[in-house]
Amino acid sequence: RAILARTRKQWYQRRVRGDQKAQKSGLRHTVFCGGGDTYTGHWENNLKHGKGTYYWRGANAVYDGDWKEDKRHGYGTFSVIKDGAPFKQYAGGWKNDKRHGYGTFYY
């Protein structure tokens, strides 16, 4: 019984350490999402928070700017890429993942 209890305790400690390592917090962690999407930037409590860049592979689009609690929030640039160059672009304010305030569209 003591061996079983010790084994369980060791398993739990390894699991906790593994969970802590899996937590995303801090600067420049790159995460590869389903479908080939990627995010590189700041994390806080497993949420995109601070400066970062998200690339949507399926839409061939990229957002580079400020994030708050996993949403685009602050100043940022959203670009749709065509033939290796920005095809459509918006640079300006964002709030709760939507364009907000002043901004400029480029075509």
How would you describe what is shown here?
By secondary structure, the chain is of the alpha+beta class. It has one helix at residues 2-22; strands spanning 26-32, 38-44, 47-56, 61-68, 71-82, 85-95, 98-106. The protein has a 7-stranded antiparallel β-sheet, with no helix packed on it. The chain is flat and about 40 Å long. 14% of the residues are buried.
Report the total helices: 1
Reading the helices and strands in chain order gives: HEEEEEEE
User: Biggest sheet, open or closed, and with what strands and sense?
Assistant: 7 strands, antiparallel
Number of strands: 7
Q: State the share of residues found in helices, binned by percent.
A: 10-25%
Instruction: Give, in spatial order, the strands making up the sheet with the most strands.
Output: 1-2-3-4-5-6-7
Structural class: alpha+beta
**In terms of per-residue confidence, which ranges show pLDDT below 50 for 5 or more consecutive residues?**
15-19
Rough outline:
flat
Indicate the radius of gyration in whole angstroms.
19 Å
Task: Indicate the proportion of strand residues.
Answer: over 45%
Mean pLDDT: 82
The end-to-end span amounts to: 71 Å
